[in-house]
């Protein structure tokens, strides 16, 4: 399926929103702009404020200060039942006393549609989530995955401007979760509705989103595409949250508006893009390289950029092997993940090893 | 607790369980047996089968009055206790506030207070308030003893009521009243009916408080108590007792079925709740 072209129009505008509970700030001066038709994820550990933000968009909570608008309309003072948003709850919140059809038609009752029109929209929504034929099934007779689909259909049938999803996949087992990630993305592309997803699962966010906002402690740390978030995290916290990262201490040799030249003990002199939030720590800086961007050099192969060291640990993970490699001069050993097609799973612990890298993969970041 | 259940070898445990049940229910079994016996004195051997004692019941005006009084008291007390129980159970299951557990404990206390003491205290209070004893004072007394039961039943029905159900309803455009009508009420209705039935049954069978707080109007248990003075009236009492027993048993069974249904509903069944 071709990617849906992105609109430039703003759907959700979050402007300096703070939410305090007494002395605690669940959300601290967050500003964000989400585009129409975008699949946007709020990613962060529990307690980072992502759910608070989502609930404020839905209207279940109100900002202590700042403003939220949806579709150009300020949301202040507008109750949840009058907002152009619909939500898929973490617990799904399927009405247990109603069957699938009645659940999906719940919100349509208020719209006073003709009987046939209502039925058509329910059928259409059930088809969108592949539940055709299960309309008469009781809410208590559904599996976890089916409940999730009912919750989705019940929200989609309202044709909202924005669909809010609160950790919708966290209750599913791994296999179903991965399948639903693909389906959710496909569904979003098909209906073209703006999706805002809250998740603590970085892979989920990376796999589904057009853009991600990474949040820590009530603040938005970085907003960017999945690729940029993963490859160019602005700080160590973001880097760490999105998977393994080797941190390398460096000495700044030269600094200008867009780039940095640094000296490292293991990797020598590197020229790298300067991150926006880069703060010079005296003469020092931190570089990071993902474990899969270090490749094992076999036999006599050479690379333009390489480091040599010794394998100190080896962990087998089926399709990949995880090596811990000590490099002379580096204070911490490097993590390396290598696919197993050339026998990385047979490299003996204690063996000398050479690793190739692309200097582009070494990114400078704020601490 | 170890999760494994061991199967006891030998029949000792089953024998014990059997005796236990016999001890509990044997006296109760005598009631229906003697109520269809021809002889007026409850003695073995039985002298023959008759339904005469049952047929006599509707021909006793005092009994019909007592039955009507019990019905009035039972309905009033169960409705009042259930309304108060709903408020208490909702507050206890929905909100967190200091003293919540203490309050819940205090509401449950009448369950374990000696009933005679409760009855005497209530009598004193009623008289101090200048209320003359009547069925109304009995209703007040019964509300007090019913609330713990009502709250237990309703708490189990409300507990785990997923608040996001009400939020989902609002999210789908429904007003606060519409949400109450279309989501909250249908979900807790079984628990409410169950509470009404339990309270009615308790009130129907309650003797001590009714005895202390009633004026000249007798409820069924008080009527039975009065009849016990006359040996010749005993078979009628046994017949009436049997009917009360059956009615209580049926009401409690229905109430328990409804309570379980309500509890199952609100527990957001089947779904993993992360």
How would you sum up this structure, described in words?
The complex is a heterodimer of chains A (367) and B (274). Chain A is an alpha+beta fold and 367 residues long. Chain A folds into 2 domains: 10-236, 3-Layer(aba) Sandwich (Rossmann fold), CATH 3.40.50; 244-365, OB fold (Dihydrolipoamide Acetyltransferase, E2P) (Beta Barrel), CATH 2.40.50.100. Chain A has helices at residues 50-58, 100-105, 115-128, 144-156, 174-191, 202-208, 226-231, 236-241, and strands at 10-21, 24-35, 39-43, 65-70, 73-74, 85-88, 162-166, 194-199, 211-216, 219-224, 246-255, 259-264, 268-273, 284-289, 295-297, 306-316, 320-326, 334-339, 352-356, 363-365. In chain A, the strands form 4 sheets. Chain A has a 6-stranded mixed beta sheet with strand order 6-7-8-3-9-10, sandwiched between helices. A 5-stranded antiparallel beta sheet of chain A has the order 13-12-11-14-20, with no helix packed on it. In chain A, α3 (115-128) crosses α4 (144-156). In chain B, α3 packs parallel to α6 and α7 runs antiparallel to α8. Residues 268-274 of chain B have low confidence and may be disordered. Classes of the chains: A alpha+beta (367), B mainly alpha (274). Chain A binds chain B through residues 58, 60, 79-82, 85-87, 89-97, 106-107, 110-111, 140-144, 147, 154-155, 158, 167, 170-171, and chain B through 162, 164-165, 167-175, 178, 182-183, 186-187, 264-266, 268-274.
């Amino acid at each position: 399926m071709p990617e849906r072209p992105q609109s430039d129009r703003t759907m959700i505008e979050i402007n300096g929103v703070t939410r305090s509970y007494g002395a605690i700030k669940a959300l601290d001066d967050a500003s964000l702009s989400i585009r129409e038709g975008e699949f946007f994820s709020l990613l962060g550990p529990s307690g980072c404020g992502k759910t608070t933000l989502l609930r404020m968009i839905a209207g279940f909570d109100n900002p202590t200060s700042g403003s939220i608008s949806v579709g150009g309309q300020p949301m202040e003072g507008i109750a949840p039942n009058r907002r152009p948003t619909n939500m898929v709850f973490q617990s799904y919140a399927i009405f247990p006393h109603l069957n699938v059809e009645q659940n999906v038609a719940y919100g349509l009752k208020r719209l006073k549609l003709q009987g046939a029109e209502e039925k058509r929209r329910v059928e259409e929504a059930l088809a969108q989530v592949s539940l055709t034929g299960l309309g008469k099934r009781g809410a208590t007779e559904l599996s976890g995955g089916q409940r999730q689909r009912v919750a989705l259909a019940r929200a989609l049938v309202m044709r909202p401007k924005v669909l809010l999803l609160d950790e919708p996949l966290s209750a599913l087992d791994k296999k179903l979760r991965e399948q639903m990630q693909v389906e959710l993305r496909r569904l979003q592309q098909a209906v073209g509705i703006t999706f805002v997803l809250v998740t603590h699962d970085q892979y989920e966010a990376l796999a589904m989103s057009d853009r991600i906002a990474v949040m820590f402690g009530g603040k938005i740390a970085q907003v960017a595409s999945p690729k940029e978030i993963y490859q160019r995290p602005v700080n160590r916290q973001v880097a760490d949250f999105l998977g393994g990262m080797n941190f390398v201490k460096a000495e700044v040799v030269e600094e200008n508006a867009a780039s940095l030249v640094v000296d490292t003990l293991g990797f020598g002199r590197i020229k790298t893009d300067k991150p926006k939030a880069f703060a010079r720590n005296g003469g020092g800086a931190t570089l990071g390289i993902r474990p899969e961007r270090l490749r094992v050099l076999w036999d006599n192969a050479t690379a333009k950029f390489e480091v040599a060291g010794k394998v100190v640990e080896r962990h087998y993970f089926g399709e990949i092997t995880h090596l811990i490699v000590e490099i002379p001069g580096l204070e911490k050993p490097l993590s390396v993940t290598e696919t197993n097609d050339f026998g990385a799973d047979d490299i003996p612990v204690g063996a000398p090893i050479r690793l190739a890298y692309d200097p582009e993969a070494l990114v400078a970041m704020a601490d | 607790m170890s999760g494994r259940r061991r199967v006891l070898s030998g029949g000792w445990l089953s024998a014990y369980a059997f005796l236990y049940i016999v001890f509990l229910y044997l006296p109760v079994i005598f009631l229906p047996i003697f109520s269809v016996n021809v002889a007026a004195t409850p003695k073995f051997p039985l002298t023959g089968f008759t339904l005469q004692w049952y047929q006599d019941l509707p021909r006793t005006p005092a009994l019909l009055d007592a039955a009507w009084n019990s019905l009035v008291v039972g309905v009033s007390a169960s409705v009042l206790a259930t309304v108060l129980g709903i408020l208490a159970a909702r507050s206890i299951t929905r909100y967190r506030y200091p003293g919540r557990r203490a309050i819940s404990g205090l509401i449950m206390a009448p369950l374990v207070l000696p009933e005679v003491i409760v009855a005497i205290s209530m009598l004193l209070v009623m008289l101090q308030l200048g209320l003359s004893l009547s069925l109304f004072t009995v209703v007040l007394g019964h509300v007090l003893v019913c609330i713990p039961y009502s709250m237990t039943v309703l708490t189990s029905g409300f507990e785990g009521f997923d608040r996001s159900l009400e939020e989902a309803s609002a999210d789908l455009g429904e007003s606060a009243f519409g949400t109450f009508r279309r989501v909250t009420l249908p979900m807790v209705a079984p628990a409410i009916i169950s509470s009404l039935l339990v309270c009615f049954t308790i009130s129907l069978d309650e003797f001590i408080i009714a005895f202390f707080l009633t004026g000249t109007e007798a409820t069924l248990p008080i009527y039975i108590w009065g009849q016990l003075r006359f040996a010749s009236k005993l078979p009628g009492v046994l017949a009436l007792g049997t009917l009360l027993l059956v009615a209580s048993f049926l009401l409690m069974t229905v109430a328990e079925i409804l309570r379980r249904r309500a509890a199952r509903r609100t527990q957001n069944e089947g779904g993993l709740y992360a």
